[in-house]
Amino acid sequence: MTISRLTLPAAACAALVGLANAGTLYLPAYPASVLVFDEAKAQIVDRIPLVTGTPMSIQLAPDHKKIYVTTIDHNGIEVIDVATRKVINHFELNTPTKQFRFFSGAVDPQGKLFYAVTKEITKFPEHYEVAKPKYTVIDLDQQKIVKTIEITKEEEPQNQGDYGTGFLEVSPDGRYVYQFGEKITILQASDFKVLDHIDLARPDAPGMENVHFGSDLDLFNSPGEHTGMFVWSDPIVHNHVFGLARFDLSTRQIDFDPIGPAPAGMAGIEVTPDKKWAYTVVSNGIHGNKRCEFWAFDLTRDKITQKEEVPCRTRFTLGISTDGKKLYIYGAGFDIEVYDAATLKYEKTWDLNTDVTYAGIVVIP
User: Fold this and answer.
1) What is the Cα–Cα distance from 103 to 117, expressed in whole angstroms?
2) How far apart are CA 347 and CA 308, in angstroms?
3) Helices marked H in the chain — which ranges?
4) H-helix or E-strand containing 138?
5) 199 near 183, Cβ under 8 Å?
């Protein structure tokens, strides 16, 4: 299952939905920039050049005043000021003899520290040595890694790199880091000491096991709230079912409800501003037998209310307009396909004339 985030994983890509009629989309793009796309004008209105290379992930700060971008060329971090649309901080982690691969990351509420899972690759005269992934603390003011912590054997299964790494999220007070994977791991932010686990394989609800969180919908959430899709299977016949989970980062309370049989894959989930409706694209089958559909959910009842077939794309991300009336399919291409959220029917295509990466989308009203 893949769900658009900003940490997402992530994974991860996401959208922030406000109450205005039109918003601004920030789209990471090749070769090294972030496009600023005006929904009302249906055109690119600005292009923010990046210093450290091609964007790999993008996320909005908790106060919505800054955008954090990680880049892949030299494993850099860039901070964009939303008001001025300028890069106000940028640096690279790579050195002539070391490279650092990002697999997951999240900024603290104060915007001072960036918590991540990284893998260090050291260059020697005749060979390279690839270390195991580590928890990593990056000081954004000092522009460097200030601490790395070995990942315990128990936590290794959800820290394998790429899509095998559970994404991170920081508590509102900055004291804890949560990692979402096959279980929720609660880590102390100061030293990544494992404080507790919320074992999703044995939730309080009887007859459920193997619950897995997907990427979060954190840009739609209230402060301190995490929402995501999950999959579980019953302990008898192991029938996979998916549903929507809501997790309070302060109280660690989880509320979730099953919705229906889990499809083979899900690409993106987006929620309307009033949080009453959600949309995703699901796929079943492979190659010539592959079939893709929009699914619309009534979140007040956690029910699927509408389905509509949509052409399958090899790679794409699902987005939603600021007013929640349009759905976007984009990513790994030069355009954005626009669909009506009420009917799930295709309307038009916006040509970007630029290749967008698979990093994500941020919408700011």
Assistant:
1) 5
2) 14
3) none
4) strand 134-139
5) yes
Q: Look at residues 216, 202, 271 and name the one whose alpha carbon lies nearest to residue 245.
A: 216
CA-nearest of 117, 139, 120, 142 to 129 is 120
What residue type is 127 in one-letter code?
Answer: H
Alpha carbon 188 to its chain centroid, in Å, reads 22
Domain chopping of the chain, boundaries? 24-358
243 touches 262 (CB < 8 A) = no
Write the CB contacts of 9 (distance below 8 Å, at least 6 apart in sequence): 2, 103, 104, 163, 165, 167, 215
Quick one: tokens of 346? 């295709």
Residues for the chain: how many in total? Answer: 365
CATH number among 3.90.580.10, 3.30.1330.10, 3.30.990.10, 2.130.10.10, domain 24-358: 2.130.10.10
Within 13 A of 91's CA, how many CA atoms are on the CB side?
Answer: 12
Q: CA 198 to CA 38: how far, in whole Å?
A: 41
pLDDT single digits (tens) 276-316: 898 988 888 877 788 899 999 898 888 889 999 999 887 78
pLDDT > 90 fraction of the chain, expressed in percent and rounded:
45
User: Which tokens is 292 given?
Assistant: 């893709």
Q: How far is CA 189 from CA 105, 137, 177, in A?
A: 13, 9, 5
Q: Cα 361 to chain center, whole Å?
A: 9
Question: Residue range 115-138: average pLDDT?
Answer: 94
Residues 257-266 pLDDT 10s: 777 777 877 7
Helix (H, G, I), strand (E, B) or coil at 170: strand
Compute the distance between CA of residue 167 and CA of residue 119 in angstroms, rounded to an integer: 15
- pTM metric for this prediction: 0.83
The Cα–Cα gap between 131 and 119 comes to 6
Read off the DSSP letter of residue 282: E
3-state SS, one letter per residue, for 88-100: EEEEECCCCCEEE
1 vs 188, more confident: 188
pLDDT digits (tens, 9 = 90+) for 213-271: 544 454 555 667 777 777 777 667 777 778 777 778 877 787 777 777 778 777 667 88
